Amino acid sequence: MTPRMTSTEVLISQGWRLAFGCLCVWLGACAWLVNVEYGDGYSTVANAEYLLGSSDAWFWQRGPVMAMLLVPAEWLAQRFHLAPLDVRMHHAAMALLHAGYLFGVWRLLVRSHGVASATLLGWLAAIPTLVFFSYAPFVSHDIAPGLLVFYLLFLVHEDRSSWMDALRFGLVCVALVLVKQSFALAPVAVLLARFCALLSLHRLDRRQWLAALRFATATLIAGVCCWLVYGWLSAGRFPDLALWQRPWAMIDRIGNNYRGLRELDELFDPWLYLRNLHAYGVVAAALAMPALILAWCSADLWRRQLAIAWLLLLLAMVWTPFKEVRYLAVLAPMTACLLVPLLASILRRGKAWATLLVLAISIDLTRCVPEAMRIGDPWYRDEIRVFFEPLADDANGTAPIFFGVGWLNFLSPEREAFRADPFHRITEMQIDQLRVLFDLPRERVFRIRWEKLSSALLPGSAFLLQNQMLSRTPVVSSDSRAGLAANFEQVYARAVDVRFEWTGTHYLARDAGASPLLLVRGGESDTEVVRVPAGVIDAATLRRFGTFDGTPAYVQLRALRVLRDCNIDGCRRSD
User: Fold this and answer.
1) Which pLDDT value is given to residue 424?
2) By percentage, how much of the chain surpasses pLDDT 90?
3) How confident is the model at residue 1 (pLDDT cuts 50, 70, 90)?
4) How far apart are CA 63 and CA 233, in angstroms?
């Protein structure tokens, strides 16, 4: 029989339900309002299409679990004939997943520490943080897996040593690794933390060795299963390699993903996590180290293994050259659990300390309000959709569609971003993502280098071009534009024949409308491009792009009519 809750526990539970309800309302608003994704999210949506049989491409960089969770949302999107870039169904599925994450973390915290004021404060300090509000509106691979990592620690606790628990451990490991490959570090860290905690407390006996053997066996089998799954899914990317060789090739390809663009130490700041400690909750970040020390000194096996696992995962992420603020979100449930005993000791010091603690966490939560409210900005509904509106028309045509080498980039309007985080607030779009989402035939889609642009100006051809990849260099600034190339340009243009008529002082493009024009001339060593902003160009400049002398009454040239135009301040339509 479940014991009756005291009046204090009832009050605490009601307080958590109120916070949980508010967050669920916000997640629901995100599903309705946010109609834009990050690059990883679009790849996952495309993979959901693949699982439904409506796509011929699998994005091997992404694990299959998140795509499987989005399959019902993608099925509904197709059934209701939603636009190719309408991701609100998928965001509704993510809202349910993240609500489950919030609930699951609370249940595990209660299981560990009971229903107490410190439990609620630990949950509030470490879970609804800036990182959560920044990424929960989207398809995130870094938030919900934190619950699975936290659950692994419960499975290896000393009272759990059966083969059934080892089976559960293996299944959770499979789920984690098939969400994202880097989560393969989590079970290793958990088992190593368990061993170190037992060793430090002199509690390694035959029963513990047998339990460790069971869990290690389950982890090994899970690793083999994940290796085979990734090998099978990456067959399209590495068709000439054997199944068992493909994951190695995939790891190597991911590790060299930015080769030729920028060195890893130039792209990813080694001090990124330290510079953005506030993103994980100011109170949580300030008390994390004292909580670790307290857990170690407590001589409690559960708390000690939790502290060691948390530290091992943190060190692994710091050691890994790839760093983004969102990666540490996976530690949030473990952080909350570590904080609870420390918060309980603070609350026992008296009303003054309790008031100060509650006030600090309240202020910290208040800092998250602007981040939570940004979803109301029209950018999150219209920017991507409006930019790619012409692609829907071009998809129904027969003319080729050319993409520049690299990614298309869209920068959200907030003036603040995580410090030195290379891709925070930036949406990247790849040619293959758009090909799948818009159901474009492979034979109509091409990549083109800038120097070959003049040879591809076929009538009606569409061009999606950018002059560089948007990413922040490691600068110590919260300005979202800091470290970005100020001369970034991106266009959606279409090749058209334009008639330029001589007016006596200049040439004027007839029937060009308000759209800017780009004239392209291929040189021996480089391609020259000139912008004709209002259809007005001088004779000398026009001669460089045509084959004529003097000032004839009219000249007809093939040009690019700019339909969409972007810089680091945003995009605008020109047609």
Assistant:
1) 92
2) 70
3) very low
4) 9
User: Last residue of a domain, which of 318, 343, 373?
Assistant: 373
Q: Which residues contact 507 (CB under 8 A, 6 or more apart)?
A: 500, 501, 536, 537, 538, 539, 542, 555
Claim to verify: residue 345 and residue 470 sit in the same structural domain: no
> What are the residues whose beta carbons fall under 8 Å from the beta carbon of 39, sequence distance 6 or more?
407, 427, 428, 429, 430, 433
Asked if 319 and 180 sit in the same domain, the reply is yes
DSSP letters spanning 325-349: GGGGGGGHHHHHHHHHHHHHHHHTT
pLDDT confidence band for 484 (50 / 70 / 90): confident
CB 106 within 8 A of CB 14: no
Residue 279 lies in a domain: yes
Residue given tokens 């002082």 in the structure block? 505
For residue 247, count other CB atoms closer than 10 A to its CB: 22
Report percent pLDDT > 70 for the chain.
Answer: 95
For the record, the structure tokens of 292 come out as 């670790």
Exposed / middle / buried, residue 443 (Cβ in 10 Å: 0-12, 13-18, 19+): exposed
Assess if residue 348 is contained within a domain.
Answer: yes
> What's the structural domain count of the chain?
2
Give dist(CA 452, CA 394) in Å, integer. 21
Domain contains 2: no
Q: How far apart are CA 523 and CA 499, in angstroms?
A: 23
φ and ψ at residue 398, rounded to 5 degrees: -125, -10
Cα distances (angstroms) measured from residue 177 to each of 168, 174, 487 = 14, 5, 39
Domain that holds residue 314: 7-373
1 in a structural domain: no
Same domain flag for 233 and 310 = yes
**pLDDT value of position 525:** 57
Q: Which residue has the higher pLDDT, 392 or 267?
A: 392
Which of 162, 158, 34 shows the shortest CA–CA distance to 92? 34
Task: Let me know whether 386 and 368 are in one domain.
Answer: no
Judge whether 267 and 258 are in contact, CB under 8 Å.
yes
| pLDDT at residue 514 greater than cutoff 90 | no
The region of weakest confidence among 149-163, 182-196, 214-228, 425-439 is: 149-163
- The answer on 295 and 200 residing in a single domain is yes
Residues 297 and 383 in one domain: no
User: Distance between terminal CA atoms of the chain?
Assistant: 69
Q: Specify whether 369 is located in the same domain as 381.
A: no
